[in-house]
């Protein structure tokens, strides 16, 4: 046989192996047997098949739901490779939060420096090699946080005798296991501050307190608590106090009456009718009061109440007082009937004395040293008598009251009786 040539009786055969499913890292060998040789010669060759495939990954911590408390530092996710051939490059990873890619995160671990509420939700990792990618199961991060009380308006303004209904709105995870108001209202719902008809005594500071229990997957259970306050401001219309029903003042003395008003909010306007001389609207003032100022005076106050809930209302109140100007007696008229001072003996004569004073006066009529008539607490005196010859002469009407230290004023009438 010539070197390099095949023997004429040499038979070359081939065998092809088709694999539908290749086990990972499986050694395959091919064996040939020469049955014609006297020694039944066989020979085999090992062939190692390197099966390549995309990664199979799992996110760690290995929990479907993982509870953490807000503020936890340096919380780490790992993207664990279960199997892959070849392994991913160090930057062959990506992370998803709520199905959105987290930008800038391409390594096998992802660290949250300080866990916040916004970090809640599902996380997945994806690993890639040259033959594909694999995405992990999801891990739901449940960020638990203490109560936060929201939506309380302070001051909370409510009009007297109107209802108040304030809800303590709480955000927490898990939800609060206790909500309470202090002081409590009338309602049976602990998260509501309720009064069916609020009064001034209900004004003040009210505190809402909420509490929950946070249970992390790793670590100790913690109690979360929050308190928030509101000032309940009860609005009410004006009412007057401290003003007498009447004021007595001596003529030509000053008069100063203050209209004391309590209201919330303070009055927009206070006025007197009739008005006095002063520039301060809440004070009725006369520097020198005269008798013609006697009478009834009214003080009116008005305010505007704007509650937190509901429409604006106007409050109004009016109070009345009487000004009584006191002055001494003045005899305004003392005369005989029809001004007849010449009368006949045995005829009837009439004397009339009128006094202007406040208060009323004691009025007396004298003839010489003889008291003919007297009346108390009156403004007039009338005297009737039958004329005799001895009735001629001077008749004096005198009047006095308690003003000016009881000064007495008098007037006289001369009566002439003509005897028969």
Description:
The protein is mainly beta and 420 residues long. Among the domains are: 151-236, Sandwich (Immunoglobulin-like); 237-327, Immunoglobulin-like, CATH 2.60.40; 328-418, Immunoglobulins (Immunoglobulin-like). It is built from no helices and 32 strands. The chain has strands at residues 27-34, 41-48, 53-60, 65-69, 73-85, 93-97, 100-101, 109-114, 121-129, 132-135, 139-150, 156-159, 164-167, 169-173, 178-182, 192-195, 204-214, 222-240, 246-250, 255-258, 261-264, 269-273, 283-286, 295-305, 313-336, 342-344, 348-358, 361-367, 370-378, 380-386, 393-400, 408-418. The strands form 8 sheets. Strands 4, 6, 7, 9, 10, 11 and 14 form a 7-stranded mixed sheet that branches. Strand 1 and strand 2 form a beta hairpin. The chain is rod-shaped, with a radius of gyration of 57 Å. The termini are far apart.
Topology (elements, then pairings):
Blueprint: E1 27-34, E2 41-48, E3 53-60, E4 65-69, E5 73-85, E6 93-97, E7 100-101, E8 109-114, E9 121-129, E10 132-135, E11 139-150, E12 156-159, E13 164-167, E14 169-173, E15 178-182, E16 192-195, E17 204-214, E18 222-240, E19 246-250, E20 255-258, E21 261-264, E22 269-273, E23 283-286, E24 295-305, E25 313-336, E26 342-344, E27 348-358, E28 361-367, E29 370-378, E30 380-386, E31 393-400, E32 408-418
Parallel strand pairs: 4-11, 12-18, 19-25, 26-32
Antiparallel strand pairs: 1-2, 3-5, 5-8, 6-7, 6-9, 9-10, 9-11, 11-14, 13-16, 15-17, 17-18, 18-21, 20-23, 22-24, 24-25, 25-27, 27-30, 28-29, 28-31, 31-32
